[in-house]
Every structure is written in structure tokens, then in C-alpha cells.
């Protein structure tokens, strides 16, 4: 094998150089690393930072494996150059910092966090090829990844998906426990690929849901516990265009959705090279970027350890609290949610017709038909941490959240296209651009957060902090003082202020604090 | 003209070598056939001739590896006519034929490592790639294996000016035969590696090639041991006269908006970029050790003075346990004074 091999070239470290914040430790092994490929030098196995290794994997995939010229996850460390083009004044931005292709980055983050990613897009755009690369990245042979990939088709049975009872046992067994099951090998893999999942029959989808959701498979009372794994699903069309409608619970288990964007014919020479050299990128993945199981575990631990500082968390809280509130859905305060209206089977238009007083253009909650679930929020936090970690940071930045949010909420926060926001001509394209709309929504939320000056002036945050310090040693007078402050704050907010989603959640939190202090006072009296 | 040995190998695998060249040209658009022929003739051929004399059976593999490495280097315009840096060309010509034994034994390991090391030394201001190549050529015969030879190369890199490898290199010397370690350092008097190591550890300005008694006398004085850094217009790093600060046991240097960590010892000095905020935080806490005083352009310690009048007023100073760094508005260099 030639030492020089363009398809095996891994980007040289550091792939995302940061200005070191402290004096470095120098490794003499670096002496033998440089412009010439040296597979023998450098870091001892396992000593290379895993984020660096994942970035090298990213650049290898982007530069060598998947011809992906789209840099839609944009970062800037200085004002970017931008140009307005065409009749619609389409903006083209040239980012000033390292930016990424979502089609590669999100699957990699899914691989790192062992979550579930759905590739959508027309046929032949590299969805399945990318999923296979993720399997190879986990150390499996290309042949094994291909064989383990589940291809959705209308006749797919639960046995096709999970395995079969052994025929001899079926005849001879006296008890269910005596029937041995031949489980399908893919269940034990750390990367699971379901191709065209929307062609799987509904009943088989339910079996798949158990594996995806609860990580085990069941046949005839026998259980197979699956290892924690990353899932990659593909669909040509996720809007119901498959053979079967995807059950909602299964759809809800998918953590991120990425769209395979169109091929740019200007990159035709790369395709030509593959034909001429007879190269299949998945078969040439360099061993330096393959992750073993222990590295996968370590990577996950490192991602979990990434910090989300309080001001950042507050912005997520503020954003999330915009959408669930529906003032006219119920009489009791706690039930004033879109979910209450949905469970009652009320028509969305009938409910919105009842709403009065609030500025429906300003209220971000009016732009969506639903709110955010706990699962979605957990996914958002996980992917934000993963993106920050991937970029070599140990704390999540606002831009990490902003970039990852549209892919997490893609099918989770659904737009109400009848909302006045979409009637504004400049916003009309958001009816079809889900990623752009979600990012805009987050920007609007942050702008409102800044306008309300919540970083500096958040009376609830003070009360919350006080409560988090614990109730040990809090005297009756202190507790009564705090109760009075809560009541005063609610009274102040009730004076002529419109009720928006974020305020609704703040009021529920105040009610919670009030209740905790009330109970504490009752307990104090018994001492 | 190239040697018969290289010509035979190239001829016997002509299709394969041509395919590799074409493949490389897709990645490196500037790769030029005529220039690469010069690289093969002047850089690859001498080492193949040397390998052929020692181990004729190793010629095919060594040629294959050398061809690929040369392609990578030429493709990046690092060698050959018009190459960005002559140090690699010269290193290949001067060093590789003399280390043919190790090259023939493990070409895939040795050749990329040597090429990268030459590039590393050539691109580090103040480092001495020619000295490194000379040391390795001088001592390669004493190395029992390619692995030992490569460890010697890492240790020698420190001696050739890569001061930031000091700690790692001292540990590497421990793993080399004593005779090899002492020979690399050109220790003047008969002694043990253990004794030399202790002196090197205790005093970063210790010169193993000078008798110890001379250094004992020098240790009682304040002596300028190095002038490091220069104006960017003259090939240095600094756009304006630098300032220094101390951060723990490290010296930081700032010039304009940029900041570097300075590592220095008897064998050389290197600069490594770091966060300017670190300099600002360190500058606020700057303190000289007890007994050390700067007065105008004079350094005083325990009754000993060092007059630096040509520098004018000293604009900043930073001291670690063994080194005092001084700057002046009249120079773009940092002056290093040994305190041990």
C-alpha cells in the first residue's frame, strides 16, 4: 500500500486552533509529526483528545468521503462579509470562523452522544452512505455495517426486525422459557441503521419503538437488552410520503433531523476521481479516526461534563416558556396550555379566535401549535453540550445553542402557519424553511430577553437562589418575609400586564415557591 | 543521472509510481514533473545508493517509502527547486545516507519522522536543523536500533534549540545508553550521565561542554545568557518592543496585541503563542524575587551589579528562579540574565 493516499489523509491537528489560555505542556513526540504522513509518530493511542479526534473524523468525512460543500452551521469571530443577491435579496454570508456542514456534523454529534438522527432528503443524496460511515467510525467492518442495516419495506415483520424462535424449540418446547430465540445481530451493535424507516409496517414500527425507546427487544417473553447505541434512520420524505405513516411515538424518539442538501455539480471532478480510482470512501477510512467502545464511553462522559452556565440556561428557559401557554385553554391556571386544548380535541383556529388582548405578532407562542416536551429540552441541552465540546470548548456558548436548536426542534416545534408572523411578506419563506424559522424564533426570543433586561433584573431568580440555599435555619419571620415578597411580586405583575408564556411559567414557579414556604411554616409550628 | 539501483526499482514498478504521482498531483496542483525529477535525483538517489550498499534487499521498500515522502514534500513545495525551505533538502542529503542502516530497517517509520523533524526545526525561529542533522549523523552508528535512533533524534532536537522539549528530552536521555547521552551532549570531562543530569536539572543555563569549575565562577555573577526575539521586519516575531511578565514558572512576552510563552535554556529559546489576557493578568501581579532589584538600567542582586546602559531604561522585567528577562524601548529583543 502506498504511504501517500489521498483518501486516507486525516486533517492535521489542531483542526480548530484556540489561543491557549495557559502555558502548554509540550510533547516531544510532536517533533515527528508534520507535513509528511507519519502513522508511527505522535500521541500514544488513547492520549489524543477525543474532541480533536472527532474533528479529524469530521474533516475526513467532509473533505474525502461525502462531497459536502454546504457550510450551513455558521460561526463568526469577527463581523462576517455578506452579500445580497437576486430579486429576493438573498443573503450570502461568508463566516469569519470555522463553520460546519450540518449533514455531517449532526450525525457525528449523534454518534458521540449515542442518540437518534434522521436523515431526510431525496434519493441518492448520500443519506445511507453517511449512516454507513457512522457505523465504520464505530469500528465495524463495512461489510458488517451493510449487513446489519435494516431496510424498511412494506412486508417487514417483527421477526425480520428482531429475530426468530428456533423452529425445533417451537415444536418441542413445553414452556415459553424453553424456546430459544435467534436474535438479529444488529441489535447488539453500537451503531444501528434503519434505512427508509417510513416504509416499515405500523405493527413492526411498534416493535422498533420498544428497541429505540427502551433499548430492549422482546419476542415470546424473551428479552434482549441492547447496548447503548447511536441510531441513524433515513427517509426520502418525512412528511407522510413513505409507504406507512410513521407512528407519532416513534417520530418523537428521533432526536435530530438533518436534511441532505442538493449536490453541487461544481464538485463533479471529485465524483470523477472516485470512478477513475474505483474508490469507496467508507472502505478507506483511516484507522486514526475510528473510535473504540471505551473511547465512545469517555467521549460521552466528557460531553456530559460540558458546562451550561446560568445565563445561558436562563435563555433556554425563556425560549422554552414561550410556546406551551394558551390563556383561553382552561379556567384553572395550571391547565392554560396548548396541550389542554389539544387533548380536548379543540380546533386550533377556534381556540386562537378566543384570544384577545395580546399582540399576536409579538407573542412568539402564537407562531407554534405546540409546546416543548421534557425530552426535547433534554435533547437540546445534550446536543448543545456536544457541539461546544466538538468545537473544543468546555462551556456552551449562545451560538452553540442557536446553531443546534433548529435540528433538534425540526419536527418537535410545529409552526402555526396561520399566525400573523407568517403573513408578513418578509417572513413568508419561513413557511417552508423550518430551520430558518426556528433560528429566527430563537433570535427573537433572545432579543426579547435582552429587552426585558433579564440578565440584570430578574426578581424571580433572586427568590429562586434564596430558596436553593435551603430551608435549614430559616426562621418563621424570614419565611413570612419571603412569602410576602412572592405575593408582592405577583401583585405587581398582575397590574395591567399582558400574560405571555414566560410570565406564565414564572408565575407557576412563584406559586411553587409560595407553596414550599407555606408548608415549611406549617412544619415550623409543629417544632 | 540517477543510480542504477534507483533506476531499476523505478523501471520495474513504473506504472505504480506513475499512478502515485498522478494521484498526488490531484491533491497538490503545484506538483511539477520536472522538479520532482530533481528531487528524486538529488534527495532520494543518494539515500537509495547508501541503502543498496548495506542491504540490497531493502532497496525496493525504501525506494517506495522515499518516493511517497518525497511526493508529499514536493507537493507542498517544501523541497526541490524553488522549495520553501532548504533545510529539508540539506537534511536529506547530509543525514540520510549516513543513517542508511536504520532507514533500511524501518523506512516507513524513520523517513517520515526525520522529514517532519527537519521541517519542525527549520520552521522554529532560532532552532538549528543543520546541527541536529550533524549530531544524528555523528551518533547514528552508536544506536542499536531504529527506535533508539529516533529517541536520540528527539533528545538531540532539544540540544538543537527546541527548548520547550527540555523536560521530555531529559527523560529521553535516561532511556538512552549512557555513552550515547554523554556523546550527544559533548560533555567535556569524564563523568556519569546521572551527574550531568543533576546539573542540567538544577541549572537551565548549565553548559555541559564547559568544565564545571568555570561555571562555578560564572554562577557568582549576573551574566547575560541570551538575546531572543527580533523585529518582525527583520524576520522576528515582534511588531513593537516587547514587554515581559512572569506567570508561575513561565515567562510571557507581549508585543502589540500578541502574546507568547518564552521557553529558554542554554541550548536555545522558543516562543509559543498564548492568550494576551494571561499576560495582562500576570503583569498585574509581577514581583521580583527578594534581593533582586532593577534601578534604571542596572540590575542588582546581593551586591553584584550588571550595568545595561546601552539598553536605556528597562521597560519591563520578569524573573523565575533561574532567569531574569528584561526589555527596553530601544530594542525588539528580550534580554535573558542567568540567576543560577
Give the chain pair forming the largest contact, with residue counts.
Answer: A-B, 30 and 47 residues
Mind describing the biggest β-sheet of chain B?
4 strands, antiparallel
Tally of individual domains of chain B: 2
CATH architecture of the largest domain in chain A: 3-Layer(aba) Sandwich
The secondary-structure class of chain A comes to: alpha/beta
Mean pLDDT across every amino acid position of chain B: 89
Number of strands of chain A: 11
In percent terms, what proportion of residues of chain B is strand?
15-25%
pLDDT < 50 stretches of chain B: none
Strand order of the largest sheet of chain A: 4-7-10-3-11
Distance between the termini of chain A: 81 Å
Give the quaternary arrangement of the chains: heterodimer
Helix content of chain A: 40-55%
Tell me about the largest β-sheet of chain A. 5 strands, parallel
Mean pLDDT of chain A: 88
Low-confidence stretches of chain A: 42-46
Count of runs of 4 or more consecutive helical residues of chain A: 20
State the helicity of chain B in percent bands: 40-55%
Strand order of the largest sheet of chain B: 1-11-10-9
Rg of chain A over CA atoms, rounded to whole Å, is 26 Å
Tell me about this structure.
The complex is a heterodimer of chains A (about 525) and B (about 350). Chain A is an alpha/beta fold. Chain A folds into four domains: about 5-95, no CATH class; about 100-260, P-loop containing nucleotide triphosphate hydrolases (Rossmann fold, 3-Layer(aba) Sandwich); about 310-450, Helicase, Ruva Protein, domain 3 (Orthogonal Bundle); about 460-525, no CATH class. Chain A is about 45% helix and about 10% strand. Chain A has 20 helices and eleven strands. In chain A, the strands form four sheets. In chain A, strands 4-7-10-3-11 form a five-stranded parallel beta sheet. In chain A, strand 1 and strand 2 (about 90-95) form a beta hairpin. In chain A, helix 1 runs antiparallel to helix 2 and helix 19 packs antiparallel against helix 20 (about 500-525). The longest helix of chain A has 26 residues, at about 500-525. The termini of chain A are far apart. Chain B has about 350 residues and is α+β, with helices and mostly antiparallel strands. Chain B folds into two domains: about 5-160, no CATH class; about 225-340, no CATH class. Chain B contains 14 helices and eleven strands. Chain B has helices spanning about 5-10, 15-25, 35-55, 60-75, 85-95, 100-105, 105-120, 130-140, 145-160, 165-175, 180-185, 195-200, 210-220, 275-285; strands at about 225-230, 245, 250-255, 260-265, 270-275, 290-295, 300, 305, 315-320, 325, 335-340. Chain B has a four-stranded antiparallel beta sheet with strand order 1-11-10-9, with no helix packed on it. A four-stranded antiparallel beta sheet of chain B has the order 2-3-4-5, covered by helices on one side. Chain B has a three-stranded antiparallel beta sheet with strand order 6-7-8, with no helix packed on it. In chain B, helix 2 packs parallel to helix 4, helix 5 crosses helix 7 and helix 5 (about 85-95) packs parallel to helix 8. The N and C termini of chain B lie far apart (about 55 Å). The interface between A and B is large, with 30 and 47 residues.
Amino acid at each position: 500500500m502506498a504511504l501517500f493516499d489521498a483518501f486516507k489523509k486525516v486533517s492535521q491537528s489542531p483542526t480548530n486552533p484556540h489561543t491557549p489560555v495557559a502555558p502548554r505542556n509540550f510533547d516531544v513526540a510532536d517533533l515527528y509529526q508534520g507535513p509528511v504522513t507519519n502513522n508511527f509518530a505522535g500521541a500514544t493511542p488513547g492520549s489524543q483528545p477525543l474532541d480533536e479526534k472527532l474533528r479529524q473524523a469530521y474533516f475526513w468525512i467532509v473533505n474525502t468521503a461525502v462531497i459536502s460543500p454546504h457550510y450551513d452551521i455558521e460561526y463568526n469571530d469577527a463581523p462576517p462579509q455578506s452579500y445580497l443577491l437576486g430579486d429576493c435579496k438573498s443573503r450570502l454570508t461568508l463566516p469569519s470562523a470555522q463553520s460546519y456542514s450540518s449533514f455531517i456534523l449532526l450525525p457525528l454529534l449523534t454518534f458521540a452522544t449515542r442518540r437518534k438522527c434522521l436523515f431526510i432528503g431525496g434519493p441518492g443524496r448520500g443519506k445511507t452512505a453517511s449512516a454507513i460511515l457512522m457505523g465504520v467510525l464505530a469500528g465495524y467492518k463495512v461489510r458488517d455495517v451493510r449487513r446489519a442495516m435494516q431496510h424498511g419495506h412494506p412486508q417487514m415483520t417483527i421477526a425480520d426486525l428482531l429475530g426468530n424462535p428456533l423452529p425445533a424449540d417451537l415444536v418441542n418446547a413445553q414452556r415459553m422459557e424453553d424456546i430459544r430465540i435467534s436474535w438479529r445481530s444488529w441489535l447488539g451493535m453500537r451503531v444501528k441503521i434503519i434505512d427508509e424507516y417510513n416504509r416499515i409496517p405500523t405493527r413492526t414500527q411498534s416493535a422498533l419503538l420498544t428497541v429505540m425507546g427502551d433499548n430492549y427487544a422482546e419476542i415470546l417473553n424473551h428479552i434482549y437488552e441492547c447496548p447503548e447505541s447511536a441510531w441513524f434512520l433515513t427517509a426520502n420524505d418525512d412528511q407522510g410520503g413513505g409507504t406507512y405513516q410513521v407512528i407519532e411515538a416513534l417520530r418523537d424518539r428521533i432526536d435530530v433531523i438533518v436534511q441532505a442538501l442538493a449536490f453541487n455539480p461544481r464538485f463533479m471532478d471529485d465524483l470523477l476521481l472516485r470512478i477513475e480510482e474505483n474508490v469507496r470512501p467508507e472502505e478507506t477510512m483511516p484507522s486514526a479516526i475510528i473510535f473504540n467502545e471505551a473511547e465512545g464511553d469517555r467521549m460521552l462522559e466528557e460531553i456530559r461534563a460540558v458546562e451550561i452556565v446560568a445565563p445561558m440556561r436562563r435563555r433556554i428557559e425563556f425560549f422554552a416558556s414561550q410556546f406551551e401557554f394558551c390563556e383561553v385553554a382552561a379556567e384553572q391556571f395550571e391547565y392554560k396550555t396548548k396541550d389542554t386544548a389539544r387533548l380536548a380535541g379543540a380546533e386550533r383556529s377556534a381556540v386562537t379566535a378566543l384570544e384577545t388582548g395580546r399582540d399576536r405578532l409579538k407573542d412568539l407562542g402564537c407562531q407554534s401549535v405546540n409546546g416543548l416536551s421534557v425530552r426535547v429540552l433534554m435533547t437540546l441541552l445534550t446536543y448543545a453540550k456536544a457541539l461546544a465540546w466538538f468545537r473544543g470548548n468546555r462551556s456552551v456558548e449562545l451560538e452553540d445553542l442557536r446553531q443546534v436548536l433548529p435540528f433538534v426542534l425540526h419536527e418537535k416545534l410545529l409552526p402555526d402557519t396561520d399566525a400573523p408572523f407568517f403573513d408578513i411578506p418578509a417572513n413568508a419563506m419561513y413557511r417552508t424553511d423550518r430551520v430558518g424559522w426556528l433560528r429566527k424564533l430563537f433570535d427573537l426570543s433572545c432579543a426579547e430577553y435582552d429587552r426585558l433586561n433579564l440578565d440584570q433584573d430578574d426578581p424571580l431568580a433572586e427568590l429562586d437562589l434564596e430558596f436553593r440555599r435551603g430551608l435549614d435555619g430559616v426562621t418563621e419571620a424570614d419565611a413570612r418575609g419571603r412569602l410576602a415578597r412572592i405575593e408582592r411580586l405577583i401583585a405587581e405583575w398582575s397590574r395591567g400586564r399582558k400574560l405571555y408564556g414566560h410570565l406564565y411559567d414564572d408565575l407557576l414557579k412563584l406559586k411553587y415557591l409560595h407553596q414550599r414556604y407555606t408548608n415549611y411554616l406549617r412544619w415550623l409550628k409543629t417544632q | 543521472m540517477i543510480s542504477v539501483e534507483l533506476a531499476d526499482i523505478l523501471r520495474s514498478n513504473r506504472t505504480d509510481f506513475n499512478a502515485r504521482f498522478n494521484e498526488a498531483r490531484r491533491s497538490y496542483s503545484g506538483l511539477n514533473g520536472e522538479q520532482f525529477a530533481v528531487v528524486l535525483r538529488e534527495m532520494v538517489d543518494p539515500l537509495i545508493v547508501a541503502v543498496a550498499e548495506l542491504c540490497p534487499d531493502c532497496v525496493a521498500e525504501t525506494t517506495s517509502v522515499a518516493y511517497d515522502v518525497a511526493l508529499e514534500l514536493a507537493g507542498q513545495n517544501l523541497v526541490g527547486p524553488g522549495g520553501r525551505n532548504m533545510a529539508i533538502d540539506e537534511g536529506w542529503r547530509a543525514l540520510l545516507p549516513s543513517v542508511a542502516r536504520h532507514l533500511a530497517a524501518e523506512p516507513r517509520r524513520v523517513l517520515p519522522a526525520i522529514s517532519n523533524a527537519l521541517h519542525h526545526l527549520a520552521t522554529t525561529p532560532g532552532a538549528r536543523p543543520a546541527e541536529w542533522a550533524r549530531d544524528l549523523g555523528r551518533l547514528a552508528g552508536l544506536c542499536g536500533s531504529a527506535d533508539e535512533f529516533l529517541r536520540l533524534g528527539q533528545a538531540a532536537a532539544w540540544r538543537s534549540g527546541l527548548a520547550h522539549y527540555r523536560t521530555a528530552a531529559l527523560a529521553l536521555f535516561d532511556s538512552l545508553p549512557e555513552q550515547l547521552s554523554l556523546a550527544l551532549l559533548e560533555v567535556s570531562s569524564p563523568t556519569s550521565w546521572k551527574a550531568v543530569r543533576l546539573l542540567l536539572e538544577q541549572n537551565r543555563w548549565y553548559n555541559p561542554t564547559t568544565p564545571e569549575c568555570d561555571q562555578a565562577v560564572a554562577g557568582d555573577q549576573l551574566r547575560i545568557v541570551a538575546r531572543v526575539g527580533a523585529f518582525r521586519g527583520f524576520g522576528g516575531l515582534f511588531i513593537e518592543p516587547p514587554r515581559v511578565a512572569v506567570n508561575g514558572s513561565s515567562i510571557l512576552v507581549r508585543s502589540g496585541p500578541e502574546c507568547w510563552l518564552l521557553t529558554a535554556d542554554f541550548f536555545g529559546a522558543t516562543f509559543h503563542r498564548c492568550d494576551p489576557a494571561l499576560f495582562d493578568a500576570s503583569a498585574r501581579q509581577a514581583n521580583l524575587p527578594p534581593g533582586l532589584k532593577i534601578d534604571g538600567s542596572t540590575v542588582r542582586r546581593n551586591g553584584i551589579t550588571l550595568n545595561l546602559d546601552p539598553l536605556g531604561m528597562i521597560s519591563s522585567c520578569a524573573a523565575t528562579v533561574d532567569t531574569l528577562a528584561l526589555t527596553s524601548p530601544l530594542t525588539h529583543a528580550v534580554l535573558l540574565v542567568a540567576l543560577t
